Amino acid sequence: MQDDPVQTFLDEARELLANLEEALLELDADPGDVHSVARVFRNLHTIKGSGAMFGFTEIARFAHDLETAFDRVRSGDLPLTKELLALTLQAKDHIQALLRADPSGEGLTAASDALLARFAGILKESGAAPGQARDHGLEASGEPMAGVVAGGRPETCWVRYRPAPDAFLTGCDPLGLMEELAGLGTYAFVYHPGGTTSLEDHDPERPHGFWDVVLTTDQGLDAVRGVFVFVDDGEAVRVEKVGDGRPRDGDLERMAGIAREHADDPRSLPGLLRGFLQEKLAMRKTGGAREAAPRAPAASSIRVDSSRLDTLVTMVGEMVIIQSRLSQAVNQALDRGALAQIAEDLERLTDEMRDNALGLRMLPIGTVYGNLRRLVHDVSASLGKDVDFVAEGGDTELDKTVIERLKDPLVHILRNSLDHGVETPSERERAGKPPRGEVRLWAGHVGGEVVIRVTDDGGGLDPEKIKRKAQATGLLPPDADPDRRELLNLIFEPGFSTARQVSDLSGRGVGMDVVRRAIDALRGSVDLESEKGRGTTLTIRLPLTLAIIDGFNVVIGQGSYIVPLTALRGFQERAWDAGRKTVDVVERMGRMLPCLNLRALFGIRGRAPAYERVVVAAVDGMEVGLAVDRVVGRQQAVIKSLDEIYKNVNFISGTTINGDGSISLILDVPKLVDFAASRAGSAS
User: Over the stretch 520-538, which tens digit does the pLDDT of each residue have?
Assistant: First the structure.
């Protein structure tokens, strides 16, 4: 299947916009950073050029004035103000919308014009017209190229210039004439190279091509003809008016395309240009009556390091060899030892291919940092707060699906930190803090999991305030005496909020409930720590992937279960005792650990073994024993999500299909450890 070049452009344009936003936010923090100014200019220039190349004419037109503004910033002619940065961020969002629209931008041109008018105002205040930075260079090819020069009441005309055979001998400079013509207004050129000849027959002292030019000017047609006053012999130049009004750059480029397609039919060409221009101007007057055809949803794509693909191809080659060995072994009825060696090689290769295939889906979490940085910038500005956003661990890799589903929870967490956590500058000064607050996002690998922490240095949570609000809303009975952790976790309850009033950002008790449900759906956990007056830290723990895990298969009664390998710390055994509680204790290396009897917890009946195995698991440094009937051995588990009807089943995070077709349940070790630890005191 061939790649779609337009989809490739869209993917690359979104990456360029992400880089553009990152550079703009860096400039917001440090306006004197010349490297970031250059990054902004390069990204705008590439977006404009690529947009024109792939037919996104409205993007090319819109990005032109943005590029001009930052060209002047780069040269020191235009100051980089907060107003210009804020407007450019809005323009970036608008380009994002144009990528989702029809390539011509129908339906969004009015918004484009409104933003361009604001850019023109900024450029005018600095003494520069939007088109001044335009280079009037010409393309010596059959492709149209648009240029801009400011003008008043416009007329649009078509010019064909075919230099006389002796033009060079009489001192005529055709390119110079084209440059002079370009100076009269807005233009699009098409150069027709002419017929091909052999090198022996080619005469370098004679011109071999001609130009079609679509020009919009306020200088009148006499000024256009005046450009050619010394070279027009009655046949070299043809000038015809095709309409009034000023078409957009994209329309000029399309008219130049018509001229290229009908270069051999100069009689009908002016009529075709007039019809196209009248249609476009009529659409602009009616506000663009036609709606853009809905774009079919694009398939999700992902960029992959080529070295990973090379490794995968090598592994496929090895697998072909092993398959050949296996077929040969079957045909020759080899002994058990030879077959065992083949099976061992196949298992090794399967493990490597699994790891490599999972690696293809891994993305650095830093891919979402740009959007979050923009969120903090916009929300803190709307709240009148001065906040630094520090993002660390951007190279930490996660499954693409996990990253996509993690975006919304992170947005809710940051909005709550900014709205409820970080104080205003005046409040911070009264509390003896620096006026500028800080929100820090950190990500990293810890013990086979990905840990994400969001920390702010704001006012923190008040447990007593949470308790009073919970009792007032009926979440807690009046005589309840929950511990600190239970009080803090109340903010994850649906509809619970300590905000005094509802704002555009928060206060309805929805955000943190969404966070908890989203993280649970990812088979993760979320934990909250806060100190009044010092700040809050929210910690998210997630599995590396949602597809395959390594684990140990254990059996309880007739049921089969998987304990994820990342949580395992060891095994031991003890004699069965029917009098034991669901949570008791077990000795391990001179220490007493809580031990959770899974047979009792799950209510499994039937005969128990004389000796039970204790699987020692750990989460966050907390070790707990899990008592099972027996341990079968290591097993790779292809994770299958629980059906919607079982979503509220405790202590089970998923299922997997075994080699014999039976089903094993995957234990939710963090919840089991938390359950055992919370009852460890009574057990001891």
Answer: 878 788 888 988 888 999 9
